[in-house]
Amino acid sequence: MARGGKRPGAGRKPGSSTKINARQRRTLTEIARDHTEQALGVLTSIMCDTDAPAAARATAANSLLDRGWSGRRRTIVMGARRAVRSRQSTSPS
Question: Which of 1, 20, 45, 64 is deepest in the core (most CB within 10 A)?
Fold first, then answer.
């Protein structure tokens, strides 16, 4: 008996719907953006915690500096249907 290959009747049927539609599906980026404020708060608290290991404090400080002063700045303009991202100059303003 042959193994593998296409089998009759296998797979999703043409035209069948997924469990969630495209309007309900959220990308990982969108979910992460919902937690930006909380994540920045955690990084700030780690950076300011004198009992935290020096490596953790330095990593938190570096992460905050990267987000605040990184040369790769992006402007996000929210539209009715999608977000439009554009890269700006690499010099901080």
Answer: 64
- Round to whole Å and give the CA distance between 53 and 26: 36
Local structure of 28: helix, strand or coil: helix
pLDDT tens by residue, 31-90: 888 998 999 999 999 999 999 999 999 999 999 898 888 766 556 565 555 544 544 445
Amino acid at position 49, single letter = D
The residues spanned by each domain of the chain are 28-87
